[in-house]
Amino acid sequence: MFFDNATSFINDPNNKEILQIVKGFRNGAVYGAKVRFPHALVMTFLFREGSLKDKLTWILQATKQHSRNLAFFVTIYKSLMYLQRKIAGDKEQSGHSFIAGLIGGYIVFGENNNINQQIVLYLFARIMVGLAKVPAAHKVVDAPKHTFPIFASLVWGIVMWLFRHERDVLQPSLQASMQYLYLDSNKWDSLRNFIWHNK
């Protein structure tokens, strides 16, 4: 009986908009855990120092924070979209998503920590690629032929200059990756650490 009533409730069209917010929270939490856990696992065992317990604690904390942040962001975003739509007479306006994202981003991702930095930098990279494609979408230029190669070369030129001259402003995991690729590859004293081990 309970499951029948619950199923009727969640399938009632009158409850759909509010339940979309609830399901958004659930999906944010699940997606955050799915994305962060394997990333934290790999990066922690590759680059973090400390005991096994410390590493496992960090992995679980990072997963929890990523999961929680996405769940709360989705909830705030969807709630603000709902409120703005109701205020506008049940019509979504073009700027609603920007306002909801702006407010949600400030509330949830405004704290400057490693997890938030990684998420925001990931999004920044994706929107920059998206912006590089806008001219092609509006038939201004042939983006794959002209825009993306220029964008890619600027990104790589800037990141390499920053790594060589202003390394401390880069995210720690990026510093660690670049240290391994570009500086650790300059050091060896035997075949063992030339071919098999890095150090």
Automatic annotation (TrEMBL):
Q: What is this protein called?
A: 1300_t:CDS:1
InterPro entries from the UniProt entry? Pmp4
Give the source species: Ambispora leptoticha
GO cellular component, as recorded: peroxisomal membrane
